[in-house]
Amino acid sequence: LLLKYLQKKIKLGKNIIICGDFNIIPEEIDSYAPEKYLNDALFRLEIRKKYREIINMGFNDAFRIFNKKSGNYTFWDYMKTSWQRNNGLRIDHILVTNNLIDYVRNVL
After folding, report:
1. What is the DSSP letter of 27?
2. Set 21, 30, 77, 102: catalytic member
3. Phi/psi at 69 (nearest 5 deg)?
4. pLDDT score of 1
5. SS3 at position 23
6. For residues 17 and 94, is the Cβ–Cβ distance under 8 A?
7. How far apart are the C-alpha atoms of 61 and 24, rounded to whole Å?
8. Per-residue DSSP letters for 39-106?
9. What string of pLDDT tens digits covers the 108 residues of the chain?
10. 21 a catalytic residue
11. CA-to-CA distance for 101 and 50, rounded, in angstroms?
């Protein structure tokens, strides 16, 4: 339902921002150790494909517009001193439609 709704709004040229706790690691650079998450729901291929499907509709990862580097995360396990060692994951995302990219750039 969400994908159909988004497709309809994009066809109408609507400005759309989707943000929140997606619990998806989109790419290897979004994890301190992607090999540890190969069979985890956060990094499963079918989940990443659904995320990519949203991106391919006409959305952009607002964070990745500005930062292509690894080591930037939105979640750290509260156990095992993950924060101190920066052993994190980027699982929270802000997606914006293509027509909003210039506005996002102007925020800086």
Report:
1. S
2. 21
3. -90, 155
4. 86
5. coil
6. yes
7. 13
8. TSTTT-HHHHHHHHHHHHHHEEEHHHHH---S---SEE-TTTTHHHHT-EE--EEEEEEGGGHHHHHH
9. 889 999 999 999 999 999 999 999 999 999 999 999 999 999 999 999 999 999 999 999 999 988 999 999 999 998 889 999 999 999 999 999 999 998 888 876
10. yes
11. 22
